[in-house]
């Protein structure tokens, strides 16, 4: 009998390997990869604080991406700018708010959220993007494009839930949980709306929800007339797991299913030898070809983020051991290219693109992949590469800088789940 029970127990462990390890959501413990590498806690704290100071409050011409621009009836206003493209982007605003809530910078968080709601939010019920945020704005608050990019809404919703948990809810736009609930409901449920663009009144568009009900996946754009597909780097199963617990009750089963779907999708969308994902993919995981972005079928700036997403999902929930295999695979590929030499654009089978260069943002996401990697000696090389990287400055400091700082937070164990009651 004892032998039978032992064999049964071993079989269960083999079938459900993830149960042998719990993620940070269950344990409350976050790995500090820098500490594991031999760096002291004071050194780590100094590095993170220096990065925040420079990127949020450094020289406005060469260092910062965060700009304070007065106030309105809701308080101070601030935006984060893509310096190279001279605009304000939904991804950057929502990334900066995530950094702010993780670092307990409530003043910066609220100023960024106020600018987002004041200038980027579409409040007209007749507008095709009603309830969402314009993905690109001029720094004076005028829209460049009125359609949303769903990765921005995904981060904003998570930012707001974390803010509610960490600081409590205020009034109006600072009732964080109510704002998150409304946004999350719209992301899944908003009915299609056909109407004109504010900046192009003679041109109409039809836009609907940001998630596909059929596929249970995030859409690249919510247009109902353009070809429909997804973006691997938009898949955030660790966020969906939390929304399945904290979001509007009626939608919680959808978010739980979406987390599982995204974990399967990572396997379909990544190259089986290199672990590289395309910038854009169809719902079956095949790369998107053609369209306005001729490089969408290759590994480029969007796709850099994908490894970070599956690795944080493993770190937080330890639900799918295949994510560990993906981190090992992609780190083995980049190690073969040279830890300090690899470029930032490749075909999925690993051929470097002619316009590639070495990018700090990719250094950061490759370091974050170490949270899931099983080859710790190799993973430590990527962590040390991020440690040795300089704080981004100059023309490309926006994307590089946001991911550099998020990389520091992830690798130090300071990018955490702030739990709602």
Based on the coordinates given, report the CATH architecture of the largest domain. Alpha/alpha barrel
Gross morphology is: globular
End-to-end distance? 44 Å
Radius of gyration using CA atoms only: 21 Å
Total of domains: 2
Class by SSE composition: alpha+beta
Q: Which H/E pattern describes the elements?
A: HHHHEEEHHEEHHEEEEHHHHHHH
Any idea of the CATH topology of the largest domain?
Glycosyltransferase
CATH class placement of the largest domain = Mainly Alpha
Q: What percentage of amino acids are in beta strands?
A: 5-15%
Tally of contiguous helical segments:
15
What value does the average pLDDT take?
Answer: 94
Low-confidence stretches: 1-19
Helical content stands at 40-55%
Please state how the strands of the largest beta sheet are arranged side by side. Answer: 1-2-3-4-5
The count of DSSP E runs of length 2 or more, i.e. the number of strands, is 9
Biggest pleated-sheet summary: 5 strands, antiparallel
Produce a short descriptive summary.
The chain is α+β, with helices and mostly antiparallel strands. It has 15 helices and nine strands.
Tell me what the structure shows:
The chain has 421 residues and is α+β, with helices and mostly antiparallel strands. The protein has 2 domains: 21-63 and 229-421, Glycosyltransferase (Alpha/alpha barrel); 65-227, Glycosyltransferase (Alpha/alpha barrel), CATH 1.50.10.10. It is 46% helix and 8% strand. It is built from 15 helices and 9 strands. It has helices at residues 2-15, 24-27, 33-36, 41-57, 90-102, 106-120, 150-167, 176-189, 237-246, 252-269, 304-317, 322-337, 360-368, 376-388, 397-411; strands at 66-72, 75-82, 87-89, 136-137, 143-145, 193-196, 204-207, 211-212, 217-218. Helix 7 (150-167) packs antiparallel against helix 8 (176-189) and helix 9 runs antiparallel to helix 10. The longest helix is centred in the middle third of the chain and has 18 residues, at 150-167. Mean pLDDT is 94; it is low at 1-19.
